[in-house]
Amino acid sequence: MSTLPSSFEEFGSKPSGGGLLDIDYKRVLFRALRLWYLVALSLLVALTVAYLINRYTTRIYPVTASIIIREPAENTDARFLYNNPLVNAYRNFYNEPYIIRSYPLLQEVVEALNFQVTIQKEGNIKVVEQYTLPFDIAVLSNGRSSEILLEVMSVGTVRCYTEDNKTNDVFQFNEPITCGGVTFKVIPQGDVSRIIGEQFKVYIRDPEAVAVAYSNQLKVSWAQQGSSVVNLDINGPIPQKGIDFLNKLIEVYHRYDLEKKSQAASRSLLFIETQLQDIGDSLRLYESALENFKRKNFVTDLSAEAQQLYEQLKVLGEQRAVVVFATNYYDYLEKYLKRSSDYSQVVLPTSIGITDGVISALTNQLVTIQNEFNLLPLAKDLQNPMLTEKSRQLKNALTEIRQQLLEAISGLRATDKIRQRGIDQQINHIEVQLRALPKAERALVNIQRKYTFSENLYNYLQQKKAEAGISKASTTSDIVVVNPPRQAGSAITPKVMQNYATFGAIGFILPLLGFVLVEVFNNRVQSKEDIEKVTAIPFIGGIGHNPSEKSLVVFEKPKSALAESFRALRSNLNYFTEGKDKKVFMITSSLSGEGKSFTTINLATVFSLAGKRTLIIGADLRKPKIFDDFGLGNEKGLSVYLSGLVSREEIIQSTAVPGLDIIGAGPVPPNPSELLLHARMDELIAWLKETYDFILIDTPPLAIITDGLVLAKYADHTVFIVRQNYTPRPVLKMVDELYINGKIKNLSMVLNDVYRSGPGYGYGGYGYGGYGYGYAYGYGYGYRDKKGNGGGYYSED
Questions:
Q1: Predicted model pTM
Q2: Angle CA(98)–CA(102)–CA(105) in degrees, nearest 5?
Q3: 769-786 pLDDT, tens per residue?
Q4: What element of type H or E holds 186?
Q5: Can you tell me the mean pLDDT for 455-469?
Q6: Is residue 385 reached through a cis peptide bond, with omega within 30 degrees of 0 on the bond before it?
Q7: 594, 530, 590, 596: which is closest to 569 by C-alpha?
């Protein structure tokens, strides 16, 4: 049984070595230099891709602006008069960036600028948005997003159609047009004649969806921690469009800030005017009654005692007026909380002089949360789970604060009732004293007391109305523009130089990476160094590549570089077999197609041309072929002799090379391995040594057939042929094991068919010659081109 691997796939199916550690970087570099045109082509393709990206990618430009949100202490217009709670609004600066990016605010900007309409024009390669055109689209009704096509037919007419309905309907400018489910007008805004015949794509979208898109694009950030300067940044393909957007956004935000600050004063004025109307009616009634009483009873002044009691009643009446006013506010607030679902319009208690800390804090908190809730879009429309959760939290907070307010109102009512009861008791005590006065004077005091009560309440409300009016008139926005919107530099995309650098690096690295991968996954022997890394078997030389199809290279071209490589091989073999007169060499390899027969023929030719009697034994009984290279027959050969059918003299044939004879393999026998073990083989070798100086035995491949091990005992030296870019490196390990175990002695390696030379390939000096070799077993291991494509290396015929 053979000790060789049972299947050659053990050697040929997996790359050998340790991956990157086995890479010959010199060889990779040499391959890159040799195939420089591939690197140049890859670089050219990569730079072309970079150019196309830079040329046709839509350029995006940055637009920026800065505003200051002043603190309330900086707005002191009304504070010079008094500390009015109407202008003492609390501002949470952490909410401002969110407010600026809120969907309702941005939707107002989008609708004001008509940004829900986008007009594009198709170029040869890409579609370009058009911002400055001599016409505009005014949407009259929009139930859904639409895409329509417009063609300017003349100075006053346009054709409108859709991709699905290409009609020839022509419409006038400034008249309603219904197309694609949308009603709109085309409004001229310049010289339309310059675009006659041009077609445009018009996209009409829902303003809220456009606002959401702008909210995602808009960047709002504080200039630095602790400052009140806010930077607004947005990127887009049209710088002027971004500038217009930020200008309008600052304008809308400025107006929103003014409206929010004046809301408290406006609501307070409305509430106070309602109260004044009721109190005014009562005041006029009591004033008329007082005048009539004085006229009928001829009473103009009160006595000293009556005047004293009146003054006491007047003070108590003022106190009672404050309690009554507060009670009216509590009634208003309770009714508002129970009937309304939007609490942002509630009148703040501090704005009308009610200073209770609990109810003031709860009301302010209720308004703040309601305003934040109103800034949210409809979560059900956006289908955003984060917005839905935020909306749920705010609703829960509003419900909780509302309940706390109702409980606080109930507590304050109870407190005011106790307070009013105490005032009424004091008034009743004074009224008891009034009974001691004359009847007319007592009646006058009662009428005058009611009149004074109404008058005090009326004057109190008038004072609050004046304060609210002054606050509303003196309200200024806290928003101040620092840097107006402007384009902040050149285009940020595409990054031209970065793209060229990136793609240039990719174009340069990709082929190099390919060369590295080829090196990593190529498990075939490339050079002398590959052999020396795997085995300690001596390396005695290399044979170049033969571009011709003939095998007798040395005989036909004795002065060629390839012939010189065989002479060098002869010299090295003589060094290994020095001291022996008769020498037997066995020429073998691992696989079919590695050139052992070619090497045998030309090495034998070198010996014979040197005047030595040389014999070649074709010991490959399974695939006899070597006879054909000399144009000889194969009827009588080694198999016939070992079978005992002919004598040894009959199997020797002379060749055209002087001094070179050959014993062919003969017809293929049924038992080639058994024949080689026959004693007649021993007798033949012994007899031939008496006649010939050099005997070269051409054997079957070792990795396939074990016949070579049987014949190794006859050899003084064995030459193992390795073919460049053909022989798998794992095979060398197998041969090395045979050498170490002593199954093949006196072994040396020859690198055959060296057609690549230079750094990483070794033996650049013999890379000029070559050989043509035809060999085939039905299971050969071939990597290179077959005969007829590259100089006739070998054939599997």
A1: 0.59
A2: 130
A3: 333 333 333 333 333 443
A4: strand 182-188
A5: 75
A6: no
A7: 596
